[in-house]
Amino acid sequence: xxxxxxxxxxxxxxxxxxxxxxxxxxxxxxxxxxxxxxxxxxxxxxxxxxxxxxxxxxxxxxxxxxxxxxxxxxxxxxxxxxxxxxxxxxxxxxxxxxxxxxxxxxxxxxxxxxxxxxxxxxxxxxxxxxxxxxxxxxxxxxxxxxxxxxxxxxxxxxxxxxxxxxxxxxxxxxxxxxxxxxxxxxxxxxxxxxxxxxxxxxxxxxxxxxxxxxxxxxxxxxxxxxxxxxxxxxxxxxxxxxxxxxxxxxxxxxxxxxxxxxxxxxxxxxxx
Length: 272
Description:
The chain is an alpha/beta fold. Helix content is about 40%, strand content about 15%. It contains 10 helices and 10 strands. α4 packs antiparallel against α7. The chain starts with a strand and ends with a helix.
């Protein structure tokens, strides 16, 4: 479906009379990011999954400004309109969680409850944002130089050595996850990182206190950086509740799908 400057690759499964969840994947993910979780949720919910700009088979047919958070968020709202989805739940992981938080704070009338997995409101100060932009530009250059798949595979191996990912490389399905990541185009990922990375996005810290949508903040036990960020978020707004998931790092839904789904069900089914 072409909307404005986007040709979205998406799949909408409508389960009559069941609430809809939109899933937003993380950086280097794709439409299949939440497949295992969706298998456990599909009986109770309708769902919308898509490739975000710079990922999978979604095409940006405009300029670089169409990779940024503000235009991407508006495009997703346009997609919801096109599919006649008035209100839905939202689940976002990492980059998709940052985008999900932006959507919720700017279009609160469209969302019922929101689950943010290993997400953040961005960086609070201009100095922090500039430093992050500089670092992300270095990473983006490495991606752009991934001419052959072995280069990209080496990049991914290095990426998952980051402390936030804990012991993800020990997971029995780690190689399968990497294979899925390799389906992306490194040059498109380069654009996503440079234009929707944490340093580029608008800081959402000052808007958190205005939030009125119930949000569950999920963070992994081994992801100390995001435990700290999400603990601060929960102090700012009473509509946030934080849950630390044992024996996981940044990618909770991959490392412990069952616990991830149990937390989602209990949160979404709880009375508001």
